[in-house]
Amino acid sequence: MGDDRHRFGWPHPGGASLSPLPRIGGGLLRTVLTPEQAASPNPRGTLTGINTVSPEYFSTLHIPFRDGRAFTDFDRAETASVIVINQAAARTFFPGEQAVGKRLKFLGEDFMRQVVGVCGDTVTVTIGETPQPVLYVPLAQDYQPFLSVDVRTRTTPEALLPAAVAEVHRLNSSLALAVPQTIQQLIGTGLWAPRMGAALFGIFGLLGLLLAAIGIYGVMAYVVAQRTNEIGIRMALGAARADVLGLVVQQALRLAFAGIVIGVVGGLFVTRLMSNLLFSVSPADPITYSAVSLVLAAAAFTAAWIPAWRASGIDPVTALRD
Q: pTM for this structure?
């Protein structure tokens, strides 16, 4: 966008910044060298994500700074070359050291760039990823022909989107805007695959829970039905119906709880093996384990109570005759 870059000055509470790198889906990669690597006869650097941004980028996207400063309007082509790196890059290139003041170099360039700030890590490819190293370069020192405009507002983003597009066209009607969208839409696109996977896992989990409940109900109902004669004898000997129901249900729940405990212990072990597939959920999530245990306990209670209630209502003489 060239000379128009300083005219994207939406005032706060709105704000705008320029960047060629989407936060989700990838971006530009360049080989980065430390001074020691650059001095080697056979330099081997690290392939790192590069994002060329305007000074307003970090404040617009609310990216915090851990050390140093952000870019300013004084970081121009005729001034010293500077960069901002994220925390992942600081750990990669300067482990255990203060990164601000250090220098890095892009492969193919004959000059070093000084680190003036360290910002927080952000999503670069997929949500839930391990933080990736990213280097930020001021737009005035590294012009890019293809840019994205990030606009922050306190109003509904969808309502502001047409106005933002119209403003860009007003500045330069020859600019082509590709896929204007809100950050939520961009995040939704990045979460499509994880959401589909979560939906499938959820469906299979519900089917497994349903089959387990049906299996418990069938087994417990069969076990109680086998005790019809025993229940008739107890009733003939003067046992109260409530006492018989309590005895049968208690014995059934004791078996069910033993099975639930074994299942929970096994589940805690198995879910640790698939923890990398979980997002914002602990492998030992207490709500999930409690809900599943309650469903299975309810199935066992129902499977024991209904046959026992029917059997306890049979005439003792009929039960003894059978």
A: 0.60
CA atoms within 13 A on the CB side of 296: 25
Q: Are 307 and 216 in contact (CB under 8 A)?
A: no
Q: Are 105 and 139 in contact, with CB atoms under 8 Å apart?
A: no
Answer yes or no: do 201 and 306 share one domain.
yes
Same domain, 202 and 315: yes
Please tell me whether residues 274 and 307 are part of one structural domain: yes
Q: What is the pLDDT of residues 2-50, one digit of tens each?
A: 333 322 333 333 455 544 444 444 457 889 999 999 888 888 889 899 9
Distance between CA atoms of residues 67 and 226, nearest Å: 74
Query: Same structural domain for residues 28 and 173?
Result: yes
Whether 187 is in a domain gets the answer: no
> Of 303, 222, 216, 221, nearest to 260 (Cα)?
216
CB 88 within 8 A of CB 125: no
The residue among 149, 181, 213 that closes a domain is 181
Burial zone of 321 (CB within 10 Å; 0-12 exposed, 13-18 middle, 19+ buried): exposed
Q: Is 17 left (phi over 0), alpha (psi -120 to 50) or beta?
A: beta
Helices of type H across 142-240? 157-171, 183-190, 192-225, 228-236
